[in-house]
Amino acid sequence: MSEQAGRREPDGVEALYAEAGQWHVNAGGETIHAKRMPGRWRRIKWLTASVWLIFFLGPYLRWDGRQAVLFDIPHRQYHLFGATVLPQDFWMLSLLLLFFAILLAVATALAGRVYCGFFCFQTVWTDVFTWIEERLEGAPAERRRLDRAPLGPRKVGLRAVKHLAWLAIGFLTGFSFVAWFVDAPTLWWTFFTGDASTAAYVAVALFTVGTYLLAGFLREQVCFWLCPYARIQGVMLDRTTLVPAYDERRGEPRGRLRKEAGGAVQGDCIDCHQCVAVCPTGVDIRAGQQEGCITCALCIDACDAVMDKVGRPRGLVRYASLDELEGRSTTPMRRRPRVWVYTTILATALAGILYGLASLDAIELKVLHERAPLFVRLADGSIQNKYTLKVLNKTGEDMQVRIRVDGPPGLMLVGADAPLLARHGEVTPATLFLRLSPAALADESLPVRFVAAGERASGETLRTERESVFIGP
Questions:
Q1: Which of 265, 268, 274 is nearest to 251 (CA)?
Q2: Which of 94, 151, 254, 291 makes an SS bond possible with 269, Cβ 3.0 to 4.6 Å?
């Protein structure tokens, strides 16, 4: 066998080398046309991206005759399936924001910018936009040739269809966003008949243009220059964080694949640049962790495919920690203090949210005792206390609420003969009096309990109560 035959490269590798010269890191001066390759991480990426279908389909889910999740800002009511959250319960929003902030920190500490690579709306929308672009204009090399080609009927036609598709996705994005704040079926009618609010039209327009520009044109430059998360991720990683990484000890020295009788004369990296070709931000994972890496793991699929072709084991590029790459012993997750701190905060925030949702009452009652004076003595000698009651109706309908009081024998409630009309979504105040003869006043202060009860149109009885005191001389 001749020396040339002994150096023959496996089928398909020549094509990889021919394509490698077309790829380099983009500094913002041109559009990145990333190559799409099938693989495990590409499938996972599509599955995680499908979570955003909730954003588009969620507003059309119905619950008890109305939209299941509706953030009704004009009426200051936020419906979450069977629960109605009013501004008075917004302490739960603080816990929710804390929960997601710490969840992001936990994910970053464990697996780097996994949110960016698999869940971020910018990443997902850009992926969809470039998928449409590939379906219409072809593979990356064809798209680059089309970019350089002069304007002609074919180029104008393809670009027109592509941009119309992008604008349609942008419009659906904006419309779906507004549908979380306005009843979705009603919005479809009012929006196209000109009866929707100005805010709805402005919001849809802003989201349409923003999505079109960010996902269609800026793309990876948003991750480089506009997203603050890229700037702070460095302080959130440590030596035990799992990130897509290049095994330099195994891959170097890199070079074109050559085989001789004595075996390989170089590292496993054949310098095919496929890891750069598939990267949506155009970075070279072999240069180590860098700002542009969004941890999407597509470079792992590309490298594994090449290793399969050249007959070498997978994992040259893989999820690994710095300790693992340097051959050090890895720290188990259970021994990482930061993970335990994050987990404790997450559990506390989640417990608070669940407690808040579980303790939400359809009606709430607050009782304020008059402080000046604490009591008055009437002409008949009885002692009278004044109270201001505030009834919060969290249902979607007005309700007749009756007030009664439980307390020592002989206690008389004045001012509650007629039911109180509690408007839905509002706090309805009422001023009431309690009277008690001095003979029944066994102490300077006696506990009393106010009870508010109402009935919904469906026949369901709602009840709430609040403790207070009756004060005497």
A1: 268
A2: 254
Query: DSSP strand E in 81-125: where?
Result: 83-85
* pLDDT score recorded for residue 25: 46
**Res 12 pLDDT > 70:** no
SS3 helix, strand, coil % of the chain, rounded to 5? 45, 20, 35
In the beta sheet, which residues pair with residue 399? Answer: 422
Residues 52/54/59/62 CA torsion (nearest 10 deg): 170
How far apart are the C-alpha atoms of 257 and 105, rounded to whole Å?
A: 41
The two tokens of residue 163 are 């941009």
For 410-431, the pLDDT digits (tens) are 899 999 989 999 988 788 899 9
Q: Work out the percent of the chain whose per-residue pLDDT is above 70.
A: 91
**Three-state DSSP string of 435-448:** EECHHHCCCCEEEE
pLDDT tens digits, one per residue of 221-265: 898 888 888 777 767 788 888 899 999 999 988 888 765 545 555
Domain regions of the chain by residue span: 1-360, 363-471
Q: What is the DSSP string of 75-129?
A: TTEEEETTEEE-GGGTHHHHHHHHHHHHHHHHHHHHHSSHHHHHT-HHHHHHHHH
User: What distance in Å separates the CA atoms of residue 134 and residue 146, rounded to the nearest whole number?
Assistant: 12
For 410: left if phi > 0, alpha if psi spans -120 to 50, otherwise beta; the answer is left
CB proximity list for 160: less than 8 A, separation 6 or greater: none
Contact predicate 394/423, CB 8 Å: no
DSSP-assigned letter for residue 260: B
| Partners of 447 in the β-ladder | 469
pTM of the model: 0.77
* Structural contact between residues 377 and 383, judged by C-beta atoms closer than 8 angstroms: yes
Residue 110: what pLDDT?
A: 86
Q: What is the pLDDT of residue 259?
A: 59
Class of 363-471 in CATH: mainly beta
C-alpha closest to that of 86 among 339, 391, 419: 391
**CA dist 133 to 98, 136, 175, 238, 458, Å?**
38, 5, 23, 37, 53
Check residues 79 and 212 and name the one with the higher pLDDT.
Answer: 212
Calculate mean pLDDT across residues 290-314: 92
